[in-house]
Each structure stands twice: as C-alpha cells, then as structure tokens.
Write a structure and sequence with these properties.
Strand content of chain B: under 5%
Low-confidence stretches of chain B: none
Family (chain B): Belongs to the TsuA/YedE (TC 9.B.102) family.
CATH superfamily of chain A: TusA-like domain
Strand order of the largest sheet of chain B: 2-3
Radius of gyration of chain A: 11 Å
Helix content of chain B: over 70%
Strand content of chain A: 25-35%
CATH architecture of chain A: 2-Layer Sandwich
CATH topology of chain A: Translation Initiation Factor IF3
Radius of gyration of chain B: 21 Å
Order of helices and strands of chain B: HHHHHHHHHEHHHHEHHHHEH
Keywords (chain B): Cell inner membrane, Cell membrane, Membrane, Transmembrane, Transmembrane helix, Transport
Number of domains of chain B: 1
Shape of chain B: globular
Number of strands of chain B: 3
Largest interface: A-B, 42 and 48 residues
Distance between the termini of chain B: 54 Å
Organism (chain B): Thiopseudomonas denitrificans
Helix content of chain A: 25-40%
Largest sheet of chain B: 2 strands, antiparallel
Mean pLDDT of chain A: 92
Distance between the termini of chain A: 23 Å
CATH class of chain A: Alpha Beta
Oligomer: heterodimer
Structural class of chain B: mainly alpha
Membrane topology (chain B): Multi-pass membrane protein
Number of helices of chain B: 18
Low-confidence stretches of chain A: none
Mean pLDDT of chain B: 94
Order of helices and strands of chain A: EHEHEEE
GO cellular component, one term (chain B): plasma membrane
Chain lengths: 79, 397
C-alpha cells in the first residue's frame, strides 16, 4: 500500500468527525501553493466519500486513487 | 459468495437506493403497526425511566402522559426500534470490519456535542418529532406540522453552519510538513465473526418474540434492525443534508432524502387506503417552528442528529456518547418545561392538528406534497449552484 509520492504537507484528521475533515481539507488546499501535494489521513467513515467528492467538485486533482488502510483512508490531493 | 460480501460490505451503498428502501419500509411498518418509525419519543421515555429510577415522581407530568410512559423499554415497540437500530448499525460496522475507537483531537468537540445534543433533543420533542416523525416519516403521513418543521430545520441549520465556520468553533487542524505514517493494519480480522454472531442472535430474538406472541415488539425489533442496517450502509445523515449544502455546496444527501420522501408518500397513501388506516397527524403550532429551529441548530452543533448519532456511536466515534446523553437530557428537560414552565400553553395550545388528507383529499394531498418536495429539490440545486458560482469567483479573484 506504499505510494512513491512525496507529500509537501499532511493533514492528520484521525478521530475528527464530519464535517470537519472536509472543511479542514478544503481550507488546507486553499492555503497551499498550486501544485503542492497534500496527504490527508482520516478515519471518519462519512469523510471517505465527502472528502474526495468535494475536493474534486472544488477543482482539485488527485495524485492517485484513495488508499484504504484498515479503518482509515489516505488521500493525495494537489493544491 | 466472496464477491457478494465484498459488494455489500467493502463500500457504502448508494444513498438514493437506501432512502428509497427506507421510505418503502417505513410505509410497510406503518401498515403493519399503525405507528411510524421514530426515535426521540423513546428517548424521552428513557429520560422518564431514569428519573423514576432516581425516585422522581414523573407520573403527573403531562408530557409523559402524552408519550405514554409505561412499562420498561423492552415492553415498548418504540424501544425495540431504537435498540434494533443500534444493533443493526453495529452489525454492519462489524461485518465491514470498520469498528474503531475514534477520539476527536479537538477536545472542544465533546462540549459542542453535549450542548448541541441537549438543544437538538429539546427542540425535537417540542416539535413532537425529529428528522423522522416530523420529517422523513411525517411528510408521508400528510401532517402539516412536518412542512413547518422542514422549513424551521433549514433555518436552524443555516445558523448552525455559520457557527461552524467560526475559527473558535472549528479549531485549527494539525497541518504538518512532509508525510505522516498511516496506522498499522492488523492482520487478524475478527470483527466480521462477531458481527455475524450478533446478527444471528438478534434474529433468533425476533423469532422468539414472534413465537411468544409479542407481534408488535418483534416487528419493532425487526424493522429497527433493518433501519439500522440502512442508515449505516447508506451513511444517512440528515444533519449533513442541510448543513453541507450551506457549508461546501454538497447536495447529494438532501436530494436522496427528498426522493425517498416522495416514494414513501406514495407508498404510505396506498397503505392508508388499502388497509383503511388513520394517518398519524401531529399538532402544527408555534412550537413546531421554534422546536424545528432549535433542532436544526442543535444537530449542526453536535455534528449529528438523533438518527445519525446512532450509527456513528456504533462505529466507535466517541464524540457521539455525549451527544446521546445530551439528546436524552434535552428531551427530558422539554418534558419538564411542557407543563411546569408553560411551553404547552404558550406555544402548543394555539395550534391544531392539520391533515392534508382531510383538507384536500388523497389526490390533492399527494399533489401538494409532491409539489412541495419538487420545490425543495429545485431549491437544493439552486443553493448548490450558487455556492459553486461564488467559489469560482473567489478563486479567480
């Protein structure tokens, strides 16, 4: 499950419940420079769907498919 | 077999499908028991049970007479619905191997959850139902109070979403430079076995209740199980339906709920005429509006309503423990305020039970309901579009 990506920043959201994962993710992306890579680690089941869907809807691109790691998900998103 | 298991438990189900199923099942539950799928009434009774246990004599409280506080939770079909929903959600969580104790990093969430839970419980009971009896199963009963409640919930969640955006409320996340290590994954998988055993045990219990002649309780336990399965697998969150529309322009859940209600309205109408049933009509009064606004605000503060809280707690999201306790405290406070603090006389007495079926007949009531839901749908799409238009402007600016 290891990816060869080198994220510039990481948002560790383990434990946080919805809607905060999606709010935090969008905020972090907004604050980063274009082209930088963000890694998101989240374990709120609602966020498995709303984080990738909303990041896409807000115009951000994924570096790879979401990675399922046990009870959590990892997302790699370009700002 | 293996691929079917994967299909059912490795991914969440389509919310449209889940809510359509929930809509049909709730109509069927009404046809079989003449009561609606609801949870907060039982929360109030649980509060009453606790007070009785502590030696407080609540038998004279009007609200407990209204919601028929009798016997214990296991001799009430509404009680079996609630416990069935918890168990159904837990079974799904375990079968999909997704249970995990999740502790919020932001400590303030516990306080927010507790306070929000109290406000949501208080508001829901003031309006005589939460997102179920005054919303998802209220509209299909053609009870006008649910129309008021929907508008009120919209107003409350709008304010709630504004609050959520405040820096002091949402807190600052821990953005770190570089990569972080993901958690280690356990190789031994035990959760699905526990889930399977729990499912068999609960179904045996349902069969036992039927065999012993407790038909209503058995139906409560069975439908509760089904509703629990559905809300967990579909991640059905009424709170997010409104809130995320305002917050991030997300409309999926709102659209699915509206379509589910439309299907349920047709199915319920058929049941009413096929079996000659009396629809459940609740009083429409100022209390519906005030209660709905409080409910909407409370569920956003708590990050979950009385239904969404149930499956999230079963997933191991510890935040929802104070929310659950808050819900019961809020409902009980309302039961006290009802006659002791004059809520009834001030906000409920001026109202009346208004049934659209009596007002407009079956065809008129159905058309009116579908037009109202269609308008809601259009408003949802409009709000989503407006959000994204503003967002695009902000990005290019």
């Amino acid at each position: 499950m290891n990816t060869d990506l080198n994220p510039d920043f990481t948002l560790d959201l383990r434990g946080e419940s919805c809607p905060y994962p999606v709010i935090y993710t969008l905020e972090a992306l907004e604050g980063m420079n274009k082209g930088e890579l963000l890694q998101v680690i989240t374990d709120c089941p609602g966020s498995f769907r709303n984080v990738p869907e909303e990041a896409t809807a807000h115009g951000y691109r994924f570096a790879c498919d979401p990675v399922k790691n046990g009870q959590e998900f990892l997302f790699y998103i370009y700002a | 077999m293996k691929s079917a298991f994967r299909f059912l438990f490795q991914q969440y189900w389509n919310p449209y499908l889940v809510l359509a199923l929930a809509g049909v099942l709730s109509a069927l539950y009404f046809a079989l028991t003449h009561t609606v799928w609801a949870v907060t009434g039982e929360f109030t009774r649980l509060g009453g049970d606790l007070l009785l246990l502590l030696g407080v004599d609540v038998t004279g409280w009007q609200y407990f007479q209204l919601v028929k506080l009798q016997d214990a939770t296991w001799s009430r079909s509404d009680g079996w619905i609630v416990w069935g929903m918890f168990i159904g959600a837990l079974i799904m969580v375990l079968l999909s191997n997704s249970f995990k104790i999740r502790l919020p990093q932001q400590r303030r969430r516990y306080v927010q959850g507790f306070v929000g839970g109290i406000i949501a419980g208080f508001g829901a009971r003031m309006a005589l139902g939460c997102n179920l009896a005054a919303f998802f199963t209220g509209v299909p009963q053609f009870s006008l109070h649910s129309w008021i409640f929907i508008v009120a919930t919209g107003i409350g969640t709008f304010w709630g979403a504004k609050l959520t955006r405040q820096r002091w409320w949402k807190g600052r996340p821990s953005l770190m430079a570089g990569a972080a290590r993901p958690s280690k994954v356990k190789n031994r998988v035990v959760q699905p076995w526990v889930g399977g055993a729990l499912a068999i045990a609960w179904l045996l219990l349902v069969a036992g209740l039927f065999a012993a002649g407790y038909r209503m309780l058995a139906l409560g336990a069975l439908f509760g199980l089904a509703f629990g399965v559905l809300i967990e697998r579909g991640q059905i969150c009424f709170t997010s339906a409104f809130r995320d529309l305002f917050l991030v322009g997300r409309s999926l859940m709102a659209r699915a709920i509206i379509i589910g209600m439309a299907i349920s309205s047709v199915a319920t109408l058929l049941a009413i005429y096929a079996y000659d049933l009396t629809p459940v009509t609740q009083v429409a009064a100022p209390s519906t509006l005030v209660g709905g606004i409080l409910f909407g605000l409370g569920i956003v503060m708590a990050s979950g309503c009385e239904t969404g809280m149930m499956y999230r707690l079963m997933e191991g999201q510890v935040l929802f423990l104070p929310v659950f306790v808050g819900n019961i405290i809020g409902a009980t406070l309302l039961a006290y305020a009802w006659d002791h603090l004059g809520v009834y006389g001030m906000l409920v007495e001026p109202g009346a039970k208004v049934s659209l079926l009596e007002l407009a007949g079956p065809v008129g009531a159905l058309i009116a309901t579908l037009v109202m839901l269609g308008t809601l749908y259009a408003l949802t799409l409009h709000t989503e579009k407006r959000y994204h238009r503003n967002f695009a402007l902000k990005r290019t600016a």
